[in-house]
């Protein structure tokens, strides 16, 4: 199994690191993709190696896409390659998990209309504007789409991600 | 199940947060204990609520003790209450998991002599001095004692912690 995390500088550190380590615990290979090779730096100063430039990523190689929050999604959502990758996961009905501001990328990709989602409170207005059915819950699962609000939701977020990956494995 | 994390200011953020969220994902209750009530702040600025003052902790209430690293163990190891709590877990043969500098608390409690352990590289000399059988590995499991070296070892560290807790449950 392989997982893809798409992020950029100023990611919310725990929202990237917790899924990253959790997936590795499970023996899943994790690629971190961003606009440029090198590394990205979180709001709290953690540096994470970029293992793939966005343009090198083949969506078909991955079982799940993870979109952490922070201020990174403001930049990621401007990248056509990132939006196309997200669309690709939806077309294949593969799991996509977004936490906090991570959902902004899905808004820009036009993927939330009619979908049940949650997100960080400041993102709620544009999420509703985009036609999503917003719920205030620690995690919302709507078919392939898993969303959470904030770092304190990470336990529920990871529980549903692992459940989804296990259901795909069997 | 209940888990106890003992730490203090200047903890290594990911070494506290990753186990904290992982255990909660599993439905395990987690108490964070420190010298004083209120909150503790990590090296990277994360604030974590202290749910128990050390003197209020009853070791018998917990299935596992976790000791994150950073500069926190320098302070924790000076606290007799913390050392007594660690000894209590060893007497009951309950799991104790220490990462990075977390092992310093076990050194001060006199608990590593003859035990197979790993730890952060700068801690190796005093670990050997205390009579531990040091190994350079991502995780070392010696009966109830689970140790790792650094944040990048968190996947292996958590894998062994979860394995140990599951074996105790059955």
> Which chains make the largest contact?
A-B, 17 and 17 residues
Mean pLDDT of chain A: 97
CATH homology-level superfamily of chain A: Class I glutamine amidotransferase (GATase) domain
Q: How is the biggest beta sheet of chain A arranged?
A: 7 strands, mixed
Low-confidence stretches of chain A: none
Gap between N and C termini of chain A: 12 Å
Second CATH tier, the architecture of chain A:
3-Layer(aba) Sandwich
How is the largest sheet of chain A built, in terms of strand order? 5-2-1-6-7-11-10
User: Can you give the helix content of chain A as a percent range?
Assistant: 25-40%
The first-level CATH class of chain A is given as Alpha Beta
Which topology of chain A does CATH recognise? Answer: Rossmann fold
Order of helices and strands of chain A: EHEEEEEHHEHEHEEEH
Radius of gyration of chain A: 14 Å
Q: Count of helical segments of chain A?
A: 6
Our estimate of the beta-strand percent of chain A is 15-25%
- Which structural class is indicated by helix and strand composition of chain A? alpha/beta
Commentary on this structure:
2 copies of one chain form a homodimer. Chain A has 170 residues and is α/β, with parallel strands linked by helices. Chain A has a single domain, classed as Class I glutamine amidotransferase (GATase) domain (Rossmann fold). In chain A, 34% of the residues lie in helices and 24% in strands. Chain A has 6 helices and 11 strands. Chain A has helices at 13-25, 72-76, 80-91, 103-108, 124-129, 154-169, and strands spanning 2-6, 29-34, 38-41, 47-50, 52-53, 64-67, 96-99, 116-117, 133-134, 140-142, 145-148. A 7-stranded mixed β-sheet of chain A has the order 5-2-1-6-7-11-10, with helices on both faces. Chain A has a two-stranded antiparallel sheet with strand order 3-4. A two-stranded parallel ribbon of chain A has the order 8-9. The first copy, chain A, starts with a strand and ends with a helix. The A-B interface holds A 13-14, 17-18, 21-22, 24-25, 44-46, 154-156, 158-159, 162 and B 13-14, 17-18, 21-22, 24-25, 44-46, 154-156, 158-159, 162.
